[in-house]
Amino acid sequence: MRLTLFCALLPVPLLAQPGALAVTPPMGWMSWNLLAANVNEKDLREMADAMIGSGMAQAGYSYVFIDDGWQGGRDSLGNLLADPVKFPSGMKALADHLHARGLKLGLYSDAAPLTCAGFAGSLGFEEKDARMFAAWGIDYLKYDYCHAPEHTDTARARYAAMAAALRASGRDIVLGICEWGQRQPWLWGAQVGGQLWRSTYDIRDKWARRPDETWGEGILDILDVNAGLDAYAGPGRWNDADMLIAGLYGKPGPSGDGGGTGCTDVEYRSQFSLWAMMSAPLYASNDLRHMNEATRTTLLNGEVIALAQDPLGKQAVRMVHTETWDVFLKPLANGDHAVAILNRSDEERPYELEFSTLGLSGTYAIRDLWLHADVGVASGWKGSWQPHETKVFRLKKD
Ligand code: GLA
To answer: pLDDT 10s per residue in the chain (398 long)?
Structure first.
């Protein structure tokens, strides 16, 4: 009786639920922007080594994601095969290799006969494929929606079928829904058994879509969709704002399409800050084997990662949104608050924020999470922002 009462009083995220999946937003590296359909076990092993060698694994990145292009069709019994040329040792060997190093393996399929890049999809083979994924040791399935009917009910049914098959597989496998926010998956994704859902079409390596561009999502375009979805996020259910693009610098490939000519390091850092504030998954997509210092310090900012991984699991609320300024507020498990301030404009600008406008009264010890410095005790903050810069502060009640 006492124990029940005690548990009932605990906030939900503190109750460790057996088998709970994606209790904090997943972190890792995803192959699509770098390798497209040329994904292969050699590059993936090297990427895993780089994830460990760079300190990223220790900082919390754990998933190595094989996106589209790994499939080698089906055998005569309908079993899904990995391409034997790209994966000569097979998927199980790769999963074992990663697991032995404390990492996890993510894999990709599609809720239709074919994937986006035209490989074998899982429609009609959900149970068979889920059993195969479990036997291989897969930890996460990114489940796409190319070549599938438009209607929301069909999407729900197809995602529910794969979620049920994964549950029945006997292995804990996270399900990431990827229908690009077209059917408002934040309204039904958790209900059908997904732990994450992409909120937009694919990110391109750019800050924002220009007025003359008809397609291609930049950082700001995705931010402006994802920022409104805070009510739907929480432990085990996250709005997926797609991959981090830090370090791509206009590389040709999927991220270079749709006007993806590259961003500045300030912009890459802004994406990282804002994605962490929004409790979005953090999937790097650059070449981890060849990172410059700027990319490394962006992806390895442990104080910002701590915001993304905060156990309270609250997506930041956008409290101020003007043509020039965005201010996000994220409550944290220990009672601190994170505040991120973005200069959306193309000019350097001053800004002054009274914390009381965010509902935070009194004075706070302020820590700048990019300077890694305690910068004062005050009831507000005043400073100057570079174009597209995001400053992130952690506030502790004085
Ligand atoms: C879709 C997804 C991308 C990627 C490709 C692979 O476009 O949204 O993230 O998985 O398919 O073909």
So the answer is: 344 444 444 444 444 455 699 999 999 999 999 999 999 999 999 999 999 999 999 999 999 999 999 999 999 999 999 999 999 999 999 999 999 999 999 999 999 999 999 999 999 999 999 999 999 999 999 999 999 999 999 999 999 999 999 999 999 999 999 999 999 999 999 999 999 999 999 999 999 999 999 999 999 999 999 999 999 999 999 999 999 999 999 999 999 999 999 999 999 999 999 999 999 999 999 999 999 999 999 999 999 999 999 999 999 999 999 999 999 999 999 999 999 999 999 999 999 999 999 999 999 999 999 999 999 999 999 999 999 999 999 999 99
At how many degrees (to 10) do helices 152-168 and 126-136 cross? 40
For residue 89, give every residue at least 6 positions away whose Cβ sits within 8 Å of its Cβ, in sequence order, or none.
Answer: 41
Q: Does the C-beta of 110 come closer than 6 Å to ligand 1?
A: no
Contact 104, 72 (CB under 8 A): no
- Taken in order of first residue, the domains within the chain and their CATH numbers are 27-308 (3.20.20.70), 317-397 (2.60.40.1180)
Separation of 111 CA from ligand 1 center, angstroms? 12
Ligand 1 centroid–CA 236 distance in Å is 22
How far is it, in rounded angstroms, from Cα 276 to Cα 244? 11
Closest-CA residue, ligand 1 atom 6, reads 68
**Catalytic residue IDs:** 144, 202
Is the beta carbon of 144 within 6 A of some atom in ligand 1?
yes
Residue 240 near ligand 1, beta carbon < 6 Å: no
Distance 144 CA to ligand 1 centre (A): 7
Any ligand 1 atom below 6 A from CB of 117? yes
Tokens encoding 219: 């950082």
67 touches ligand 1 (CB under 6 Å):
yes
